[in-house]
Amino acid sequence: MTSRLRHPLTALGGAVVLTLPWVVSWATSIAEGFAPLTTVAVSGLAVLGASFLLAWGAETAEKDVPRAFALAVLAVLAVAPEYAVDALYAWQAGADPGNSAAANLAVANMTGANRILIGLGWSGIALFSIYKATTGGRDDGSVVDREGRLRDAVKLDPSIATEILFLFAATVFAFFVPLNGGIGMVDTIVLVGLYFTYIGIIVRGDVDEHDEQVGVPAYFQAKPRTVRIPVVLVLFAYSGFLILTAVEPFAHGLEKLGLQYGIPEFFMIQWIAPLASESPELIVTAYLVNKARATAAFNALISSKLNQWTLLIGTLAVVYSISLGAIGVLPFDFKQAAEIWLTAAQSFFALAILVNFRISVREAVVLLVLFVSQVLIEFAFIRIYPEALAETYSIYVLLAYTALYVVLGVALLATRREELRLLGERTVANIRGQPIPEPEHAD
Known about the structure:
Elements: H1 2-5, H2 8-27, H3 36-61, H4 67-78, H5 80-95, H6 100-135, E1 143-144, E2 153-155, H7 161-174, E3 182-183, H8 185-202, H9 215-221, H10 225-260, H11 265-277, H12 279-290, H13 294-324, E4 330-331, H14 334-354, E5 358-360, H15 361-384, H16 387-415, H17 417-432
Antiparallel strand pairs: 1-2, 2-5, 3-4
Helix pairs in contact: 2-3, 3-4, 3-9, 3-10, 3-12, 4-13, 5-6, 5-10, 5-13, 6-11, 6-12, 6-13, 6-14, 6-15, 7-8, 7-13, 7-14, 7-17, 8-13, 10-11, 12-13, 14-16, 15-16
């Protein structure tokens, strides 16, 4: 009996069981009558189950496709709810061009999601990886133990150079997006073009020497290809269905609970809803870290950031134009312009950290503290001052943090010029399919 309990299909069945209450309530429309707390509980369990299914599908797929491509598919599915929420606001903005609120909400939700991914995702996974390696007694070759206070670090695979360089390009371009008065077709062409160029590069890669798996992925990787590939497709399709149907109600349920406690709607849409929609990605990466696969976890987060920072922004103008019935520019006010600049600046600083393919405890803490402090200051302004005055003060905070991130990023790159040059060389080697040497680091 003990051996049966430990069978990988037991874990698979447990994850599916978590999703069944939501599937039944969604299919029968019972979910529409749920109270907010019930909605959060039932849909939240479905998101949890879907996250494990998605992770197992991606790990199993690594035997047949390049790891970067498998993680890119995982990233797209995991952040699909964020696309759905933003597309909804962009559609409403096009249907009612005179109403600027919907367009501002689309931008706010997008910038909030992107900053959460770095401020909580990148920093949190780095800290969690190091914590697990130092206290869990598990050997994770991607965690480097260094002498000195807060100097332990997560070491990234040099093959991630392609994602980092493409993210750099998208980040530099994003600084110029607000100068055009909105998000238009030029932005779509550039940003979506960057993403599909990236996909075209990684899909040509060879299948990696994949990590030795345990549990569900190991069980399915041992099966013939004729069994393994359909299983991967079913895991991706089912988890994708769950994420698309359950995350939005989960986010809206959290919004309603927040409003009951007096949290402003705009703040909920910018922060709480994106946090809910990013939850599958954060759960998947935490699962990978728990399996001593910190490198794969970070690769997934960076891939998610790349598709959100390119596809998500680029598709907003497309959805807006379709709803408008003509090619148009999704407009936004100056506060949202400042939000985009801050998001680009945070991305710039985070990438400056990663150019040497490491992120230390110290760097992760700085990312986390800067993100949390900015959000808390804005929230304090909302609670203390009248709406107009709070917005003015918020803009000052956004611009100040933008300048701080840029200064820190420039200072970091100034000391890492050689690493930046090597980053470009590794990307070229990656594109050509040449061996990528392990980067050398001074301790």
